[in-house]
Specification:
Elements: E1 15-20, H1 27-38, E2 48-53, H2 63-70, H3 72-78, E3 83-87, H4 96-106
Parallel strand pairs: 1-2, 2-3
GO molecular function, one term: GTPase activity
Keywords: GTP-binding, Nucleotide-binding
Organism: Catharus ustulatus
C-alpha cells in the first residue's frame, strides 16, 4: 500500500503509523517507510503516532527494543513533526484508550 499513500497526504490531519512489533524481519522496511512518510512535504507539520502493535504475542519486541532498532531518538530529533510512540494490541485492546486520547488531543476534540 505504501506506493499509494502519497495520494492521501494533502487531507491528513494526523498520522498513525502501525508497526508489527512481533516481526523483526520487517523492522528495516518499516523504518524506511516511516522515514519516507516523515520526509513528505505535505506531512511536514502533521502530528505522528507510531504504534508498535501485537504486544499480546509472546515474541513481540518491547518498546525499548523497537525504539533502539528504529533509532527513534535520531528520527524524533530530525523530524519536523511531533512524534509520539505507543505499544498496542489491536487484538486485546491494550493501548487503544491512549490512542483515542492522543487523537482527541491532537485533533482538538472537546470530548
Amino acid at each position: 500500500m505504501g506506493p499509494i499513500w502519497h495520494s492521501y497526504y494533502s487531507e491528513c490531519s494526523a498520522l498513525l503509523f502501525v508497526v508489527d512489533a512481533s516481526n523483526p524481519t520487517q523492522v528495516s522496511s518499516s523504518c524506511i517507510q516511516l522515514l519516507s512518510v516523515l520526509s513528505a512535504a505535505p506531512l511536514a507539520s502533521v502530528p505522528v503516532l507510531v504504534l508498535f502493535n501485537k504486544i499480546d504475542l509472546p515474541c513481540y519486541m518491547s518498546l525499548v527494543e523497537m525504539k533502539s532498532l528504529f533509532r527513534m531518538q535520531d528520527i524524533v530529533s530530525c523530524a519536523t513533526q511531533p512524534i509520539t510512540m505507543l505499544e498496542t494490541s489491536a487484538r486485546d485492546g491494550t493501548g487503544l484508550a491512549e490512542v483515542l486520547q492522543w487523537l482527541r488531543t491532537t485533533l482538538k476534540d472537546p470530548c
